[in-house]
Design goal:
This protein is 38% helix and 19% strand. By secondary structure, it is of the alpha+beta class. α6 crosses α7, α7 packs across α9 and α7 crosses α10. The longest helix is centred in the first third of the chain and has 23 residues.
Length: 341
């Protein structure tokens, strides 16, 4: 059964969103990440703002010229964080109106209303490879659905600082997560990955839409990328550089994976190689996470993993409060390796 969501006017949805986020363009990160990561994010935001101001002074970006400040997307009106290279005739408007299903962008509410009256899309193109409850994941081929994937990349750049892929989408697969109700499958977020990655990157770009942030969906997307790596019997890692929010999310995810593994571990000797094989997390990412948690020590010529019970107990407490409604169920995956791989 699909979960039903009450129809709420755009203004009410916007007021609720602003109450949650305080009207700020910066996502609320207090109490969900370390002070170091929070400061890292704010410095990066400041640098991006300075760079944009320099471009404005140089005449490359004019105030209200080709900087989209807000988008109307479904029931939400979202403030943007970064510049995205939409065609100038659209970008100079300052506000874009988007179909949340096919991702076509338009110049006015009237055009959007006419489009929605005849748009037949209610979910992303491609194959639905995962469904549990209202959450689905669609695998979209950049070669077969080029326009959709290009529009998805342009949309993502509005909320990502590190992103250069916009038009060359054919070598990539896009995994789009949606939340369904009686009106359709609403875009939650996505990640992309190369069809053939020489360095075994399992994620090229990842985004959670702002209206779904701080609700556990980002970790679901990351977890799903590692689930695919497990099916492929590969060890994966995200492509660098990560965005600031991406770095925070991955550090948090790797920490949870390691603490869960150590909590369930019953043996005598812990091997980084075995952790990597079971979790599909790259050994380099495991080591860096252990170091950040002060759980890796060098003693008598060997590296030792310290099982810090205080961190494990803290993770168990948070896990119990969070529940299991925002987790990926491997049994719900309907996906197999493409032939010839």
């Amino acid at each position: 059964m699909r979960r039903k969501r009450n129809s709420v006017p755009l203004k009410d949805q916007k007021d609720k969103y602003l109450q949650m986020h305080g009207g700020s363009r910066e996502p609320l990160l207090e109490n969900i990440t370390s002070d170091y990561d929070l400061e890292l994010f704010r410095k990066a935001q400041a640098r991006s703002s300075d760079d944009l101001e320099k471009l404005r002074l140089q005449g490359q970006v004019t105030e209200g010229g080709n900087m989209i400040k807000t988008i109307v997307f479904g029931c939400y009106e979202l403030d943007t964080w970064y510049h995205s290279p939409y065609p100038e005739e659209y970008a100079r408007l300052g506000r874009l109106y988007m179909c949340e299903f096919c991702l076509k962008y338009m110049k006015s509410q009237t055009i959007l209303r006419r489009h929605m009256a005849k748009c037949v899309w209610k979910h992303p193109p491609g194959d639905e490879i995962y469904r549990k409850g209202a959450i689905s994941v669609f695998e979209v081929d950049g070669k077969k659905n080029k326009i959709y994937c290009q529009n998805l990349c342009l949309l993502a750049k509005l909320f990502l600082d590190h992103k250069t892929l916009y038009y060359d989408v054919e070598p990539f697969l896009f995994y789009v997560m949606t939340d369904a109700d009686n009106t359709g499958c609403h875009l939650v977020g996505y990640f992309s990955k190369e069809k053939n990655s020489f360095l075994n990157y399992n994620v090229s770009c990842i985004l959670t839409m702002p209206q779904y942030m701080r609700q556990g969906y980002g970790k679901m997307l990351i977890d799903f990328s590692y689930l695919l790596s497990k099916v492929e019997e590969k060890v994966g890692s995200p492509e660098r550089p990560l965005s600031d929010l991406g770095l925070i999310s991955y550090r948090s995810y790797w920490k949870e994976v390691l603490l869960r593994y150590l909590h369930n571990f019953q043996g005598k000797e812990i091997s980084i190689k075995e952790i990597s094989q079971e979790t599909a997390v790259n050994p380099v990412d495991i080591v860096s996470t252990l170091q950040s948690l002060q759980m890796l020590k060098y003693w008598k010529g060997k590296h030792l993993i310290l099982k810090r019970q205080d961190l494990i107990d803290d993770w168990k407490t948070k896990e119990a409060k969070r529940g299991s409604n925002k987790t990926i169920d491997p049994a719900a995956l309907k996906w197999s390796l493409p032939k010839g791989t």
